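Retro notes - structure team

What went well: the batch runner handled both jobs without manual restarts.
What didn't: labels got mixed up in the shared folder, which is why I'm recording both outputs here explicitly, each with its sequence directly above its tokens.

Job 1
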Amino acid sequence: MKIIIPKEASVESRVAMLPQNIDKLVKKGAKIFIESGLGASLEIPDEEYKKAGAVVEKNRKKLLASGDIILRLRKPILKEITALKKGSIHVSYLDPFNEPKLLAALAECKISAICMEMIPRSTRAQKMDALSSQASLAGYAAVILAADNINKIFPMMMTPAGTLQAVRVFIIGTGVAGLQAIATARRLGAKVDAFDTRPVAKNDVLSLGAKFVEIDLGETGQTAQGYAKALTDEQLKKQRDVMKQYCSQADVVITTAQVFGRKAPRIVTKEMVAAMKPGSVVVDLAIETGGNVEGAVLGKTVVKDGVKIIGLANMPARIALNASQMYSNNLTNLIDEFWNKEKNEFELKLDDDIIKGCLITHQGAIVHPSFLPPVAQKKSRKG
């Protein structure tokens, strides 16, 4: 079984696989072929991959056409799908809720597409959960970025010249990214307040030394995947009223609230931004799915009412080496979980809960219930 790993797009500084993980897969008996320059963004030469046991191929077209399994980070471009070997397994991010044409093309070309965003959030699948691994680094990077953009130091400092007060940080959304942001801000010495619509998040927030902001929103909760459920308009208004107060007190606001497969909820309004102190910083980690902050612009830092609003994309890539290390481990763990030692190949177990959760297309059709046409979804539910 031939596993191939092509280079990522030039805008991406992360890589899908590092040499140490290539070594692990080769020792299992896998044949690994990589595109020349795979590790260039991290200054990892082809020679390192060769030492780990990979074969280096310069011809991208030839590489794509020969793989039984294709491992990558970003979703493929449409024109390259037809170049893939029919019946091959493609593993990457796919952005499935926003890419119906991509899913259709993968099905039409008889590619079995595994979507890394759809890996179930179960105990057994934790080691393969790329969304969590990358979100954790995004939370860290957001705090470092805020610290670099604010005109204050984070910790309280007592000096002969006077006492400098600790920066106050308000974190909205305490999933994986939010919790890592709390931990990082606390390590830097900040005073941290945090809010989440899920009451279950309170203990995690308190355990990290932050204050949990409680707002009585009535019925709330989380999805089976562990994401916060969307709020009603009335709940959002009540939430914003309390948040405005906390935003006005904060030096840094970091928003991480996302609902998987849907546009990010607008949480921080222009009125909240206007209530903040000039020189304050807001980092919107949900900017790639529409943003939590009114006035945030994808890929840019803008200033509104004296407040910096940072909407930079691909936050994990700011720590590209560690992000690549974690994603590479996620892929390696996925391959390892379903590696048949006797046949010396990756086994696509269609009845396995993990594969059921993340396999989008197979044998010429879209097979995941969430992405079937409406009529087919009804039949699937009845079945």
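Job 2
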Amino acid sequence: MDKQISEPVIEHQFLKMTLILSENQCHRFAHIAKEKDIRSVIIILGKGTVKSTALNLLGIKSQRKEIVNIILEKEKAKEMLDYFTKELKLHEPGHGIIYTTPVITAGQIIHNRQEASWNTVQGMEEKSMFKKLTVVVNRGMAEDVMDIARKSGAKGGTIIHGRGTGSDFVEKCFGMEIEPEKELVIILMPSDLVGQVVKNLYQELQLDVAGNGILFVEPVLEVRGLVI
């Protein structure tokens, strides 16, 4: 009798949780993460772009932000989304933003389950009320990206700079390679606003020209702390 081969066991579904916090809030997050035994946290430095009259009067043109990335099992992510929101007071304006995005795991790809996984992600995208827009442009163009996005209805975003001292340096961020002369702009927005913002960015930045930049959109499953 032929031995029956069982189906490979699919890994638990994972989500990527991202927090955009001030330096003080990031310190608080670190204590909470340690208490909850959350490991493998990646923190990237950036700056906020939301306009503030009070900050401008003080001569502060931008705020330093820390972008925290964690990969968690789906159920754990839901639990921690509520917990971090409460402990960091993310329901109050100005305390930070937290959101989750879907992840396709290596196990799902190895076991040829990526098609079903992508179908799941597509279903999530259709139901998502928010989207994450990412634009990679040449150094010095990030503010132009934000100006176009604001005119199209977006409220603000986060800018990440490539860092390094040599031409051979490449920094990996969100699974992407960002050369030192590049800037990455992340903007969260309602789904119904994405089409117009993308259209205006594509046309005004001439993204159809090679080397001018890259733009892509991802679904956001849940978000807290975003001021509409």
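One thing worth noting from job 2: The helical segments are 23-35, 53-57, 74-87, 106-110, 114-127, 142-151, 191-204.
We'll revisit the folder naming next retro.
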